[in-house]
Write a structure and sequence with these properties.
With 303 residues, the chain is mostly helical. The protein contains eleven helices and two strands, in the order H-H-H-H-H-H-H-H-H-E-E-H-H. Strand 1 and strand 2 form a beta hairpin. Pfam families: DUF1751.
């Protein structure tokens, strides 16, 4: 089911950032200033696999420390604009929980990958390269947009929102061949996308239905790939899904699970309704923003 088109496009939402996003933006900017003024703090705040034990807090702090100006600018802008779309729909508590889980598990996966690469290649670069940044969470945000408004087209581009995570991964892989600094961001983006999808697919609570996740076909793992590749990806994804989550409960002829558990088909309907509610909430926000601007314009003309 396609989601409604939002009037005015994404860029019409340009003001009214949430307090939580503003606070997190201050943290990102403050972290960058700290490591810029005091470079030695990178060793304590960034993820350096050889020092993660005993500095285990790096698994959390690394996500909020941007070492470059470009990084802090992109992360701050992405947080403010994407957060404004997601937080009103998810709620502040769920939004913050998503950030924490994706950030922590992304750092943990990067740590395990770096240690594994060291033992495979014996190159100490993997142990002492400082890795940090908000890119993993931003990649997870893009998955959230894919879930809520998959058919919304981007401003000035004829690309639907459902392709944002895949596009971000392709750009990151492409840049890693030509920009040396981007190589350290690539694992973070990859794991951020995967963890974001896993969280939204299996773990996110839905208070209105007391269910978890989004098992709809429109949000399956294969939807990250072109349609021609999906028949080959679906069987592999199914194997991993059963390994991680077990076999889904069987349903009866009416579409409900035997034993009272939630049914995949009924959850798919709920997921579609959820996307409609998300798009509707954004439409209401855009309409309220438009009315506010009209009121301000009329007031200025009267003066």
């Amino acid at each position: 089911m396609s989601s409604p088109q939002l009037p005015g496009g994404w860029m019409s939402i340009s003001t009214g950032f949430t307090k939580l996003c503003k606070g997190l933006a201050v943290v990102l900017i403050g972290g960058h200033i700290v490591v810029h003024i005091l470079p030695f703090t990178v060793s304590y705040l960034a993820l350096i696999p050889a020092k993660t034990i005993p500095f285990v807090w790096n698994l959390i702090s690394a996500g909020y420390v941007e070492q470059s100006v470009y990084g802090v600018v992109i992360s701050t802008i992405g947080l403010l604009f994407i957060g404004k779309l997601l937080e009103p729909i998810w709620g502040s508590r769920e939004f913050l929980k998503f950030i924490f889980v994706v950030n922590f598990l992304t750092s943990a996966c990067v740590f395990i990958t770096a240690i594994s690469l060291y033992y495979i290649t014996t190159q100490e670069l993997y142990l002492y390269l400082p890795i940090s940044g908000f890119q993993g969470v931003l990649a997870g945000f893009l998955v959230g947009i894919k879930q809520l408004i998959p058919d919304q087209e981007l401003f000035l581009l004829k690309i639907k929102a459902k392709w944002l995570p895949s596009l971000a991964l392709l750009v990151s892989v492409f840049l890693s061949f030509f920009v040396k600094e981007s190589t350290s961001y690539l694992p973070t983006v990859i794991f951020g996308t995967c963890i974001g999808w896993i969280y939204l697919r299996y773990w996110q609570k839905k208070p209105e239905t007391k269910l978890r996740g989004d098992p709809s076909d429109e949000f399956a793992f294969s939807t990250f790939f072109p349609e021609i590749l999906r028949p080959a990806i679906d069987p592999v994804a199914t194997i991993f899904e059963r390994m991680l989550c077990g076999k889904r409960p069987e349903s009866d002829e009416n579409g409900y699970t035997l034993g009272g558990a939630s049914l995949s088909g009924s959850d798919s309907v709920e997921a579609s309704r959820r996307r409609e509610r998300g798009a509707r909430a954004l439409e209401e926000r855009l309409a309220a923003t438009g009315k506010t601007e009209e009121t301000q314009t009329d007031a200025s003309e009267n003066v």
